[in-house]
Specification:
mainly alpha; elongated
């Protein structure tokens, strides 16, 4: 893999980790603050609920791509070990097949998500409590999540194919002796 792709991957990893962590912390803080305001101070600030919800949804979209990066969605290790045993070659083929299937599914969903994103850009939707706040960015962030998932799966597939080459070359070396 090229150095540029590795640097891009490192930057995206840092971005996802930071945004997901900060989003979860901020969401927790905002909800806690709203509960204190509502039940202890008897001062409800309505837009805090909306802000917490928006941060939570955005963080969860990025968490989907982060989980894809860590192979959390497609990894069914119990199934693979039960049917394929401890054979690393077959296990790797199984993971490659799952990642390819996931990539195909993401490409199938790419067109409707792209249309949904274009609609969100063309027809902005505004918040119910804060009328000037454009909430269309949530729909747009879904497209960003999809692109990040595709990027991560392609990156994973490259590394898995590289691993497959190593396994094949070690098997061939072992057979020659």
């Amino acid at each position: 893999m090229s150095s540029l792709l590795k640097h891009l991957n490192r930057f995206i990893r840092l971005f996802e980790n930071t945004v997901c962590s900060v989003g979860l912390i901020l969401t927790t803080f905002l909800v806690f603050f709203q509960v204190i305001n509502r039940y202890w101070l008897h001062l409800e600030i309505m837009w805090l609920n909306d802000l917490a919800l928006y941060l939570f949804v955005f963080s969860m979209f990025l968490t989907v791509s982060l989980t894809t990066r860590e192979e959390g969605h497609t990894a069914v290790d119990v199934f693979a070990e039960m049917f394929f045993g401890r054979n690393p070659r077959i296990h790797l083929i199984y993971k490659i097949a799952l990642n390819l299937l996931s990539l195909v599914i993401l490409f199938v969903f790419a067109s409707p998500v792209w249309r949904f994103t274009l609609r969100a850009l063309k027809y902005p939707e505004y918040g119910t409590l804060v009328r000037w706040f454009n909430t269309s960015w949530l729909a747009e962030s879904m497209f960003v999540m999809l692109i990040l998932c595709i990027f991560h799966l392609i990156f994973i597939l490259f590394s898995k194919f590289k691993g497959m080459k190593k396994i094949v070359s070690t098997n061939e070396e072992g057979q020659e002796e």
